[in-house]
Amino acid sequence: MNIGEYNSLRINRSVDFGFYLIDDQGNEVLLPKRYISPGMHIGDTIDVFVYNDSENRPVATTEQPKAVVGDFAIMKVKAVNAVGAFLDWGLAAKDLLVPFREQRVRMQAGRSYIVHVYLDHESGRIAASAKLDKFLDNKMPDYYHRQMVDVLIVQRTELGYKVIVNNLHWGMVYQNETYSSVNVGERHKAFVKQVREDGKIDLTLNKIEKIRVDDLSQAILSRMKENNGTLDLNDKSSPEDIAKVFNCSKKDFKKATGQLYKLKLITLDGLMWTLAEE
Predict the structure, then answer these.
(1) Is the Cβ–Cβ distance between 167 and 71 less than 8 Å?
(2) pTM for the full model?
């Protein structure tokens, strides 16, 4: 049974205050009565999150926390006391502690922070840390060009956005390749542009070129059909106007319209694109 993670467990027996669930090794954990639904029966296998309660006893829940052990996530501080800061973890019965030693700066109630969730092997308790560097870049990245990865937006900089890649590495998404709103704490799919010799990773939030242009072509056709068969943008339009409508670069816009023109789906009438007659 893995503390701080999701587990598939079998309902073993019923008691007045809930169900006891069991794993393949015979370890039991309580699922309190408030999480039991009418469709659950003894012998069923269910997916639950297992954590430690205030007395450090394992307990199961059907609620979904904002992050499991090994994850990074943004969470809001609910309270601060002499022990540390307590985060809104998404569980009704349990907040997540960030000990003072794991805070980069003193956390304040009401503010949100990016943290890493870890299992303290000495105490057996789940905790969080805002000292992200020690959990990242502990091995050289091994990504290939255009590989799709998961990223968490951590910080906005002059160059763009500092991100965490696959819960393992730091990476950078550059401002000049971001055409839609991006906020700290959001998760996105990204594509690897390159891994530098020093291990730094450059990424883009834009899809690889062919998929990106194909999707944009369909978006252009849809907009033209909604606009009496015409498009109020052309090759002379500003990059800002194009990005505002299609969240893309002018380069991709020209490739997409060029592709549609070659397929004889649109025609150019002066400076206006129009749908080709069927």
Answers:
(1) yes
(2) 0.74
